[in-house]
Amino acid sequence: MSDRAPPPQSLLNSLPQRGELQRREPAPVHLWNPPLSGEMDMRIARDGTWYHEGEPIRRLALAQLFSTILRLDQDARYYLVTPVERWAIQVDDAPFIAVRLSVSGEGEQQQLLFHTSLEDEVPLDDEHPLRVELDPQSGEPSPYIRVRANLDALVSRTVFYELADLAVEAEVAGVQRIGVWSGGGFFPIDGAD
Q1: Which residues contact 133 (CB under 8 A, 6 or more apart)?
Q2: What is the mean pLDDT of residues 80-105?
Q3: What is the spatial distance between Cα 12 and Cα 80, in angstroms, rounded to a whole number?
Q4: Average pLDDT of 77-92?
Q5: Residue-range domains of the chain with CATH
Q6: Which residues of 156-175 are buried (b: 16+ CB within 10 A; e: fewer)?
Q7: From 24, 30, 113, 140, which residue has the greatest number of CB atoms within 10 Å?
């Protein structure tokens, strides 16, 4: 019998087989610092679709699993990370997309909850802020909500229209802004930052 530990499994070979996948909490990828394993032919499109080798990943549970090991590093690149591997992947815009909005309460007591295409639920609050970037050429807004760590979800156009319907004026740092209340905080949506 050998005293040697078994070699670490490859990222793709260690994935559970069909039927074994369950929704999981994100892995502690911030604690892992393996060397770069290379580039994986994986891409997350602007509409939130995950692709592997040019084909869309059709199993929601598989995309959810990959999302639990996703990390954005200081080099502004996205990686799938395990304790022993780190694979670079391409992300067209943000790795998640917010496709639905739930609203409870009213006025300053209102709570907004965003739902992503991967079934994450993200409350709009100080830990999960909202920001709106304006395209310098067209002025078109691109709203984002923080999902976790430094990973964001692009807010879909439909959901942004819902936010606009909920918008009110409030004073922020002495300036009148247009935004929404959630979790006791006011979040501007006018892109005037």
Answers
A1: 141, 142, 143, 144, 191
A2: 96
A3: 11
A4: 96
A5: 29-91 (3.10.540.10), 96-188 (2.30.270.10)
A6: beebbebbeebbeebeeeee
A7: 113
